[in-house]
Amino acid sequence: MNENVSIRRVGILGTGLIGASIGHGLAAAGWEVAGWDPKPEALDEALELGAITEAYADLEQVIQSGIEVLVLAGPPDAVVETASVINPSCLVMDVSGVKEEVIVSARPRRFVGTHPMAGREQSGPSAASPALFRGAAWVVVTDGADALDLDAIEEVVALLGARSIRMSASEHDESVAVISHLPQILATTLLAAADDCPRAMDLVSGSFRDLTRVAASDSAAWVQLLLANRREIVNVAEDFRRRLAEVTALIEDRNAIELHSLLARGKELRSELVPQVAVVNISLTDQPGELARVGRALERSGVDVRDLQLRHAPYGGGGLLTLSVRPGEAETLRAAAKQQGLPVEP
Asked: Between 253 and 329, whose confidence is greater?
């Protein structure tokens, strides 16, 4: 990173989940954050929540307000349209989920395409958080970008707690088609298949919920993403169709050896995605103060929680809380939970 790079005033066009989360993080670091949104209610909410420090009724007013970097944080169609018509003197970046089309629309401006690999099922400034990007990968696209501009954007990314990954626009669009866009399609298709199976939804448990979690995301935003990246999505979907046919053939042929090899390889690859953890299962009843007791157990044990999942009972009335902690810390947490009167599963 270039030590001479220093940005202290940013403009954000679009104060939804991503734009407001960026604003929260930079405002917390002492930056001036000028914001605009086509929805006045979203802009007002972002200002009230502290995601921006100044609200403007017109995007040109933001551009002319002395900002050093401008963030285009709207949906892909809006980013393409805005990038093609604005002509600010400052550095411009976007955060949309498709890159090639945006990069083309932004030429020849000072522009760096980016994409934070973070989000939530909820949308809007009320769902925003300065912690949204901590530990996340943040793609920084090198196509047509100046070296100092790349340094400046990576300074912003680092300040928000994310890690920069440089790649080309085509590499990005192909990669997200595999790890983001295809899973969205699969989640929706799985839910439709389960809905058509008369009793399947009565049996849904944690694994199915995990696989279909992304289907709860904003459908309108996903329509834009899928259509904008249609070429890459069609390619990876066809490849997936081929792979699925190969698995089906193994099952149909009762080829236990090859099937086991495939599943074992999947298990190996999955284990490389997350740090090794130990699991503690706590049964929760439908009683006031249950989660407070969990909180006290976590506080007193001092363990590092890597992940958590709550599997609800089918008709309410509590559920099973699964906490993933560092290896060697599970017994400490179990003991603290028992001291709080919480039933710990074996």
From this structure: 253
